[in-house]
TrEMBL record:
The chain crosses the membrane at residues 6-27. The keyword Plastid does not apply. Keywords: Membrane, Transmembrane, Transmembrane helix. This is Gas vesicle protein. The keyword Lipoprotein does not apply. InterPro entries: Desiccation-related_membrane, YtxH. It comes from the Bacteria. It comes from Flavobacterium aquatile LMG 4008 = ATCC 11947.
């Protein structure tokens, strides 16, 4: 999630909290009812914030997990390619060694 979306969600939550608070303060209820409404409103906002945080946390874990898997795959591919290149180099060196042995055998006769 981009920082813009996170900031927008936070601004929305803060705006909602302010709106709920102002609405309840101007409502013609007893103080006890008003306090309970405020508490319920803040509890709802707290639950929404927890849900949002959990969502952001889960998304971050998924992205990290995917990045980790991609990195692991890249390293495995690199090692595999290196192994093939090493095998090619060994084969080339063995062929050159065989040629040198033949040339050396001719010189020793």
């Amino acid at each position: 999630m981009s920082s813009k979306n996170g900031n927008g969600a936070l601004a929305l939550l803060v705006g909602a909290a302010i709106g709920v608070g102002i609405g309840i303060l101007f409502a013609p209820d007893k103080g006890e009812k008003t306090r309970e409404k405020l508490k319920d409103g803040f509890d709802d906002l707290k639950d929404q914030a927890k849900d949002k945080w959990s969502s952001i946390e889960e998304e971050a874990k998924d992205k990290f997990s995917k990045s980790k898997a991609d990195f692991k795959e890249t390293v495995e591919d690199l090692l595999s390619n290196s192994s093939y290149k090493a095998e090619e180099a060994i084969t080339f060196l063995e062929e050159k060694l065989a040629e040198l042995k033949k040339q050396n055998a001719k010189l020793q006769k």
